[in-house]
Each structure stands twice: as structure tokens, then as C-alpha cells.
Amino acid sequence: MSGVFTPELLDRCISCGFCLPACPTYGLTGVETSSPRGRINLMRALETGVLTEDDPSVLEESSFCLGCRACEPVCPAGVRYGALLEEWRDHMWRGGRRPGRLKALLWAVNRSSRVRALGLPRRHARTTRRARRGPHLMLGCFERTLYPAVSRSASRLAPELSVPSAQGCCGALHAHNGELERGNVLAHELGEALPGLIVTTAGGCAAHLAGVLGGERVRELSQWLVERHGVEPPGAPRTPPLRIGLQDSCHLRNGLGVYLEPRELLARVGEYVELPSAAVCCGAAGTYSILRPDDSARVLDRHLDEIADADLDVLVVVNPGCYRQLEQGVRRRRLRTRVLHVAEVLLGA
Fold first, then answer.
1. Count of CB atoms within 10 A of residue 129's CB?
2. What are phi and psi of 239, to 5 degrees?
3. For residues 47 and 10, what is the distance between their CA atoms, to the nearest angstrom?
4. What are phi and psi for residue 317, nearest 5 degrees?
5. Cα-atom radius of gyration of the chain, to the nearest Å?
6. What CA dihedral angle connects 45, 47, 51 and 52, to 10 degrees?
7. 215-233 burial string, b = 16+ CB within 10 Å, else e?
8. By the 8 A CB rule, do 186 and 177 touch?
9. Global pTM?
10. pLDDT digits (tens, 9 = 90+) for 101-113
11. How far is the C-alpha of 204 from the C-alpha of 199, rounded, in Å?
12. Quick one: residue 204, left, alpha or beta (phi over 0 = left, psi -120 to 50 = alpha)?
């Protein structure tokens, strides 16, 4: 077996082990194979033919990894682990190996007409004003169905953003789940539908689009608000102030280095509380909570313990997958904390 991985990506790892304490699945298991270094060794074995794609460890670890990229900021060799994981799944999850639930999700967002149909019953943001060169607000695939108030809040916070209706999926779901080429094609199609600057309310989408279209084309909402308007929020702080925590988007923080901006904004509207695991994956990880719900729940438990101990009024997210994951977890634990998107909190929801 050869030609699965880009050689310069695979060769960069020096097996130093700095990634181990940053990896959530290694933290759960303490097993070397379930760390980035261990998984790269599996990739090398697959590439050289020492192991085949049917090897149980190769199958398990390509799925068990969260894909959170927490290993990348701590890596002294600059390993682009996220890119390696995408290539690994692109090879592993072909044909009959792709989970049925994953096939259904990818089918639903594979055409812009299907994506637009998802949001028809919900009142997500819509504008008739067309700005040919942007800036544009990107409507997330499932976000427009599950959390339409997010785009409405973002549109009110930044009315200069146009919201064209003819936009589909950014391709992040495909790229992260074994359809790398299709993920890149969808990103380019969205870039053509939204020429100029694209502002997104989804951290995972921001990282994928920036990787394909270039960082100059993409801004996450809190990043855009700070750059454009500074850290003064549009509304007055609550009295008494809300106790507010934040859950980072893994790809936004680890892939793009964006994490200060939402904290700066939230500190102006309430009493900001930094949770110990705010920068650690919550277990949503795109489709992970759907494909591996038990492992996802194990990752989430630590976060729910911290939220309960902090007695938060609001936990803020910057990604729809995290929104769903934490909302369900908080409800299951019967915590008093509300889970809201940063756009909704800044608008005073």
C-alpha cells in the first residue's frame, strides 16, 4: 500500500511526544496508539504496507480520533495532523466502510438545493440587498435548521453583511469524513456564490474555508466584530451581570488561532469565567457525536462537571456542533445553565 498520504506531511513528525498530553483520546485511554504520534505510526505502517486498511487498529483509530487538532499548536515540528487525518479517512471510508448515518448526512448537504431546502421551514437570516463583493454572512448547513436564531442575531449585530440565499455547504463535513475532493469542490463553489469576504458563525466552517480559499477570504463572526467594530458590544451589560463561560471551537482555535476575540466581547457583557477545559474538545467534533456517541459522551463529561461547578448562567459556543452537544448534555444533567451562540448573547438573548 502506498500513495495514501502526502509524503512531506507524513515525514514531518519526529515522534517527540509533545502531542500526547494535548490529545483528548489519549487522555481517556492512556494508550499510545490513541495519540497523534501513535496514529501517525499507524499511517506510516499503512503507507509502507506493514499494515492493511483492514487491520483492527487502523480501522478503530481512524474513527476514534476526534480530529480536534489540539496536537497542532503544541507540535514543535509543525505537523499538519488535521490534513493527515483527512487523507487517512479519504482512503479508509470508501464504499462499504463509510457508516450509513454518515452517508445520509453527506447526501443531505451535497447539493446547494438540498441545503437551502433544509432551512425553508425556519426563519434564518435573509436579506434582499446584494453586495456583489461582500462581506457576506454564510448560512451554516444544519445551523439554519437547528439554530436559525444564530444567523438572525448575527445579521442584526452586523447589518452590513449581506445574506444571499443561493449558498450551499462549505464542504467541511465532506472533507473531514472521507470525501476530501468533494469538500474542496464545495468550498470553491461557496466562494463563487459568496465573492469577497465570507463571515461565518461556525468555527469548523471557518477553518475549512480558510484552508481552501485562503485566510484573507474568511472571518469568524467574533473575529469580524472585533476587527470592524472593536470590543464594544451593541447592547448594554445585564444587571446583575451574567456569569458567562465559553467553549472554544477546536478548529477555530487550533486551526486558525482565533480564541481571544469571543472572550474580549463576552467580558464586556458579563462576568466572564474561564473554564479549565474551555480549549479542549467537547466531543461534538463534527459528526463524531453521531458516529461514536458513547466516546463523545465520555469526552463531554469533564466539561459538564466544570459547568456545574462554575454555576454559569450562560455557556457560549461559536460552532453549531458544539451548540448541539452541550445543549443536550446540559439538559441531560438538568443544569440551570443556558447554552447560546456568541451572536445570541451579544444581542441580549
1. 10
2. -130, 120
3. 9
4. -125, 160
5. 20
6. 160
7. eebbbbbbbbbbeeeeeeb
8. no
9. 0.93
10. 888 889 988 888 8
11. 12
12. alpha
How is residue 54 written as a grid cell?
Answer: 483492514
Bridge-based pairing state of the strands 242-247 and 198-200: unpaired
Q: What cell does 339 get?
A: 447554552
Residues in the chain: 349
Q: For 8-60, write each residue's pLDDT tens digit.
A: 999 999 999 999 999 999 999 999 999 999 999 999 999 999 999 999 999 99
- All three cell numbers of 169, joined, read 455547504
| Domain parsing of the chain, residue ranges | 7-96, 100-228, 233-346
Q: The CATH number of 7-96 is which of 3.40.640.10, 3.30.420.40, 1.10.1060.10, 1.10.10.60?
A: 1.10.1060.10
Handedness of CA 162, 163, 165, 166 (dihedral sign): positive
Topology of the domain comprising 233-346: Rossmann fold (3.40.50)
The string of DSSP codes covering 293-309 is HHHHHHHHHHHHHHHHH
- Paired with 340 in beta bridges are 316
